[in-house]
Inverse folding.
């Protein structure tokens, strides 16, 4: 059975609603053979990452960046799960660690702008060699039914890729 690891920081109603919708999509009855493991970002470990076949990440955009919780997740797991740095200390996407080429998806919620948060997360997962397997779900302002449907599609897409 494949495993989809969902690592999230969902401290608000809006981010929680996106998480719930993504999980609804990942648990769609037409998708079989996929275990969905949901772990808050402050609790996720490198063992969780290494045991998964794909990743779904969720964060609010705080002050133009990903949440501190998701940043902590990356900081505490990066090297153990195959992240590589170049000579300047930047991410090296040519590293071929054990999680390279695994699919990932991302949702980000912000009130005004999510650009910095999306750029930061995609830079880090690029240095891990993860493969972006769906468009980033960027939600600004209130979370409406259209955003929830896109979150369901995101969760369903990642789970279906692993089925």
């Amino acid at each position: 059975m494949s495993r989809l690891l969902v690592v999230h920081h969902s401290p608000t109603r809006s981010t929680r609603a996106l998480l719930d919708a993504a999980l609804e999509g990942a648990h769609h009855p037409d998708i079989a053979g996929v275990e969905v493991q949901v772990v808050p970002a402050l609790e996720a470990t490198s063992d969780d990452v290494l045991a998964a076949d794909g990743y779904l990440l969720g964060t609010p955009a705080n002050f133009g960046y990903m949440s501190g919780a998701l940043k902590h997740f990356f900081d505490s797991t990066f090297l153990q799960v195959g992240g590589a740095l170049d000579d300047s200390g930047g991410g090296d996407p040519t590293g071929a660690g054990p999680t390279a080429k695994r699919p990932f998806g991302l949702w980000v919620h912000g009130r005004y702008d999510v650009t910095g948060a999306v750029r930061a997360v995609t830079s880090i997962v690029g240095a891990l060699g993860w493969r972006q397997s769906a468009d980033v779900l960027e939600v600004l302002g209130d979370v409406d039914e259209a955003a929830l449907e896109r979150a369901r599609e995101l969760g369903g897409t990642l789970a279906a890729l692993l089925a």
Summary: The first helix runs from residue 13 to 26. Residues 64 and 116 are 5 Å apart (CA to CA).
